[in-house]
Amino acid sequence: MFESETLLSPLGEPAMGDDIDSVTRVHREKGLSQDWVVFHVGLGMSAFRASDGRYAWFEGQSDAPSQLFDSLDDWYLGTLRAEYTGRYGL
Length: 90
Hints:
29% of the residues lie in helices and 23% in strands. By secondary structure, it is an alpha+beta fold. It has a five-stranded antiparallel beta sheet with strand order 1-2-3-4-5. It starts with 5 loop residues before the first strand and ends with a helix.
């Protein structure tokens, strides 16, 4: 991944802030809908919605997605890849 980005894991350590459950819980306490499960934090925040398989990008401290994607590939290309293409010559 890239230096400012963290992909969260169900096996991550809560003390390290890289586990899905505790990060999702914190964002839900701040207003994130119960429908979303956070799986990435960094330049923005990303989550998936199990009910329809959509992926979302949240900018800043927003609890509403600024972009929705139909697949993980679309999410990656539209968010992280777009951000880091120039920096790393991707």
